[in-house]
């Protein structure tokens, strides 16, 4: 555990501390070289036959991992030994198993160890605690994990605690004017009088929104600050002065811990805990599929759709206002493009600007209003249970098709229709080479080309696929070649007597693309539907164009969103040909929602024949319009933050370094209306540049049209706050408040002036208090109420006691809101390197041990 302790200490202290470690083991021989070469001192101690090692004398901290070997040793002697080697006020942290897992029980049995029951483990812990207390240890805290370990912290308090003198107890009220000078004087006194062991007790009992925690965290890192202790009476139960002779204050005094919070009748403290692994998970019936941060197939997960809201003024990519039709999705079709995006193999292109989801662009389902069966396209997010579909991109599903049939036709037939009929002007009886003939597009091409009585050549990857094409489409065996090498080129040349084919529908890459290019007859057409070589800007020789060859690059996705009427024409063609044998739904490989990753992986193997479909609802046997919908399966999904484009978001201090980046992130996740507060309005060229750029984005793409209002109303006053809220509400209902306003006045308390101290506090607390109070009074229902706090508050930072106090007040306000069922969130950011108040600055305070984080790590 030595390494874990070292890592914990390094990460929980924000200034470097020099620790000398000693590891006691039964035999040094068994210790890995890693530890021998470290700064850890290794000693041998066999508890069965030697006394507790005296080398550990005067330790500040002993970590003891209990094991069966220690059970036979007399507990009192063992604890007395440890008590003797720990220095006064030092700690003993003992770690026990309180519950054994099945594998542990089995292993114990295999190793011939005593068969232990959980009751034995419990007894061991009780006996240990009793013995520890009897030799003089104070029990401080106990922490359980969920896999059967408990850590118990004891402290050695040798000397009888001295009752604090009256002048060493300072009341920290919410108004710093009442205590600032006294506290400053006392700290200076303490610094100058190093020999004193008197503690200075700070007591806060006037309000649960007191900032004492951030204050003491910072002050304890300043010269003279080690003597500080605090009692934060969260419930404001202490009336008058604290009676250190009575419980729980007598215990607080003797435990001598710096921070003591009295809440709900218990004494505790504030701690950072690692978030639970599934902190962002919930059960939901409404979800969509997306890749996570890693952008690989293992990160594919279903996300909660609850907060996804469509703008009332939604525009498509060519600035036409869209009419949105809410639809319930039953099936979505998979395309190779999805796999390429999900694995990061192709770059995302401009879509990345306006959406965090790039996968899923065809679906079948029912209109939520009429129940009519519809199928259609969208830019992304179609692997989902519901969608607000653009009415120009959907159409009725022919009665004889199932939902899965419908999605098997959309991108496949639209690609072939557009590539071969619309662009290559395919004529009856022409010859064609179709690559990957057993895939979705390949089969659609075969079907259409057979209808056009073409002379068809195909390539495939496996024998199964060959058999499938021979059986399903009656393609003769000698017209089917392998797509895994370039032999098809020679065979086609041979069969066509050197002439080649009139058309190639190509999806192969590299040398196979070159070979395909060579297969085209004079005046032929090369129809490229693959994306990879296009993205890679592969070069093709110009010489062949002398033979009047046409190269046709097909990007149906571009056409779908950039040419109005394209989809309508495709649907007209689809309805005209859905019964005459030209369009036949393609066979499907159907996966359930919970098998989504498997479906993606299946496509990467290249073994599938036909269309891969992800089904989120089972289709009803009744194909008519209906009002009830089959429910979706409840899944455990990931929650993600999204903003409502129809609401206004207030960002106080929004023209600051963090604020200007933050707006972009909020926009990316949906927000379109902002009110930014500032004392002086737009001043710098950079602020002007960003605001101009936001405006011009909306000019080019109405989807991005963003309203940004800069307000100079003074939120530190109620009047100013009321005006700000009214202005924001004039834009649209207020969706949230993000409090970023800040004025820093860093200085050790001994050199600080009251005015500067108070200015920093006011810059954070007053506006936040006003916004909380007045939004409650006006019954404004806020989805977000967030303050940007700092690690300087949570861990402390010398020179920032005012900032620590202020952030702490804001954090307590968030707690009070959450108690009342309202939103409230404080984020303790680390120092940010590239923008904001610390950008380009050398931090010369104790925060120097914290690596500056980059702004993009804050806005993932
Ligand atoms: N940057 C970091 O490393 C970091 C780390 C942890 C936490 N944070 C937190 O993140 C937030 C933003 O930090 P930042 O780096 O963007 O700071 P910043 O660049 O200094 O921006 C803060 C802005 O607040 C504005 N402001 C001050 N008093 C105001 C008032 N009364 N009303 C309206 N606006 C006021 C200032 O603009 P005007 O002069 O125009 O009024 C200033 O531009 C702060 O709350 C900070 O505590 C930042």
TrEMBL record:
CDD domains xref list: enoyl_red (cd05195), KR_1_FAS_SDR_x (cd08954)
Gene3D superfamilies cross-referenced by the UniProt entry: Medium-chain alcohol dehydrogenases, catalytic domain (3.90.180.10), NAD(P)-binding Rossmann-like Domain (3.40.50.720)
InterPro entries to which the protein is assigned, alphabetical: ER, FAS_pseudo-KR, GroES-like_sf, KR_dom, NAD(P)-bd_dom_sf, PKS_KR, PKS_NRPS_Biosynth_Enz
GO molecular function: fatty acid synthase activity; oxidoreductase activity
Keywords linked to the UniProt accession: Fatty acid biosynthesis, Fatty acid metabolism, Lipid biosynthesis, Lipid metabolism, Multifunctional enzyme, NADP, Oxidoreductase, Phosphopantetheine, Phosphoprotein, Transferase
Pfam family, one: ADH_zinc_N_2
Residue span(s) of domain Ketoreductase: 647-835
Domain (Enoyl reductase (ER)) ranges: 295-614
SMART domains: PKS_ER (SM00829), PKS_KR (SM00822)
GO process annotations (BP): fatty acid biosynthetic process
Name the record gives this protein: Fatty acid synthase
Organism, scientific name: Medioppia subpectinata
């Amino acid at each position: 555990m030595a390494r874990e302790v070292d890592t914990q200490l390094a990460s929980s202290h924000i200034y470097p501390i020099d620790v000398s470690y000693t590891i006691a083991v039964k035999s040094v021989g068994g210790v890995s070289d890693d530890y021998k070469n470290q700064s850890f001192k290794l000693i041998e101690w066999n508890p069965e036959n030697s006394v507790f090692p005296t080398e550990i004398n005067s330790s500040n901290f002993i970590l003891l991992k209990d094991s069966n070997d220690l059970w036979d040793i007399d507990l009192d002697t063992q604890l007395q030994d440890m008590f003797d080697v720990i220095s006064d006020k030092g700690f003993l942290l003992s770690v026990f198993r309180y519950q054994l897992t099945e594998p542990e029980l089995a292993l114990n049995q295999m190793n011939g160890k005593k068969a232990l029951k959980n009751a034995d483990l419990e007894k061991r812990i009780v006996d240990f605690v009793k013995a520890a207390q009897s030799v003089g240890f104070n029990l401080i805290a106990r922490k359980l994990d969920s896999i059967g370990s408990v850590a118990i912290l004891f402290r050695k308090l040798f000397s009888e605690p001295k009752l604090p003198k009256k002048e060493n107890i300072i009341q920290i009220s919410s108004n710093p004017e009442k205590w600032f000078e006294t506290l400053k004087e006392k700290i200076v006194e303490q610094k100058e009088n190093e020999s004193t062991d008197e503690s200075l007790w700070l007591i806060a009992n006037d309000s649960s929104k007191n900032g004492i925690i951030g204050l003491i965290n910072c002050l304890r890192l300043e010269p003279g600050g080690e003597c500080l202790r605090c009692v934060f009476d969260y419930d404001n139960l202490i009336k008058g002065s604290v009676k250190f002779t009575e419980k729980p204050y007598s215990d607080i005094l003797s435990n001598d811990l710096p921070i003591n919070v009295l809440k709900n009748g218990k004494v505790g403290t504030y701690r950072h805990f690692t978030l639970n692994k599934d902190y962002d998970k919930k059960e939901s019936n409404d979800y969509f599929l997306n890749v996570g941060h890693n952008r690989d197939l293992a990160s594919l997960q279903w996300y909660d759709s609850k907060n996804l809201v469509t703008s009332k003024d939604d525009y498509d990519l060519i600035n036409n206002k869209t009419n949105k039709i809410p639809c319930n999705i039953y099936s979505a079709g998979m395309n190779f493009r999805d796999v390429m995006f999900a694995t990061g193999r192709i770059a995302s292109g401009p879509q990345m600007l306006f959406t965090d989801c790039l996968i899923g662009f065809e679906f079948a389902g029912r209109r939520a209003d009429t129940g009519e069966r519809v199928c259609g396209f969208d830019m992304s997010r179609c692997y989902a249970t519901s969608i607000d579909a653009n009415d120009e991109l959907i159409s009725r599903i022919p009665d004889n098709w199932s939902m899965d049939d419908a999605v098997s036709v959309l991108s496949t037939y639209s690609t072939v229709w557009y590539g071969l009929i619309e662009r290559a002007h395919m004529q009856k009886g022409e010859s064609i080479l179709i690559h990957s003939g057993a895939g979705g597009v390949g089969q659609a091409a075969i079907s259409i080309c057979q209808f056009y009585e073409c002379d068809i050549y195909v390539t495939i990857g496996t024998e199964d696929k060959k058999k499938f094409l021979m059986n399903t489409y009656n393609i003769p065996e000698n017209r089917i070649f392998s797509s895994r090498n370039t032999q098809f080129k020679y065979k086609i040349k041979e069969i066509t007597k050197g002439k080649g084919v009139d058309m190639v529908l190509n999806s192969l890459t590299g040398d196979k693309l070159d070979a395909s290019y060579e297969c085209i007859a004079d005046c032929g057409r090369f129809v490229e539907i693959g994306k990879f070589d296009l993205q890679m800007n592969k070069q093709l020789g110009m010489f062949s164009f002398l033979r009047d060859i046409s190269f046709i690059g097909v990007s149906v996705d571009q056409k779908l969103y950039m040419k109005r009427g394209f989809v309508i024409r495709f649907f007209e063609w689809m309805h005209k040909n859905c019964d005459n044998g030209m369009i036949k739904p393609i066979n499907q490989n159907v996966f359930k929602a919970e098998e989504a990753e498997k479906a993606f992986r299946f496509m990467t193997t290249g073994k599938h024949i036909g269309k891969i479909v992800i089904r989120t609802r089972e289709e009803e046997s009744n194909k008519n319009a209906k009002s009830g919908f089959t429910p979706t399966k409840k899944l455990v999904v990931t929650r993600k933050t999204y903003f409502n484009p129809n609401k206004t978001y207030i960002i106080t201090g929004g023209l600051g370094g963090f604020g200007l980046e933050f707006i972009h992130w909020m926009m990316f996740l949906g927000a379109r209306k902002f009110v930014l507060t500032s004392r002086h309005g737009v001043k710098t060229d950079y602020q002007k540049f960003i605001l101009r750029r936001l405006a011009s984005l909306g000019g080019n793409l109405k989807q991005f049209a963003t309203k940004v209002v800069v307000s100079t109303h003074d939120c530190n006053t109620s009047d100013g706050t009321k005006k700000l809220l009214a202005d924001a509400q004039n834009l649209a209902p207020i969706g949230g408040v993000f409090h970023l306003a800040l004025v820093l006045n860093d200085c050790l308390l001994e050199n600080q002036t009251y005015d500067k101290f108070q200015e920093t506090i006011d810059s954070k607390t007053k506006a936040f208090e006003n916004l909380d109070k007045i939004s409650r009074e006006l019954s404004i229902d806020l989805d977000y109420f967030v303050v940007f706090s700092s690690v300087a508050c949570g861990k402390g930072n010398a020179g920032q006691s005012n900032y620590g106090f202020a952030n702490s007040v804001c954090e307590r306000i968030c707690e009070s809101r959450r108690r009342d069922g309202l939103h409230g969130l404080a984020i303790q950011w680390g120092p940010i390197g590239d923008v904001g108040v610390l950008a380009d600055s050398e931090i010369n305070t104790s925060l120097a041990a914290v690596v500056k984080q980059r702004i993009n790590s804050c806005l993932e």
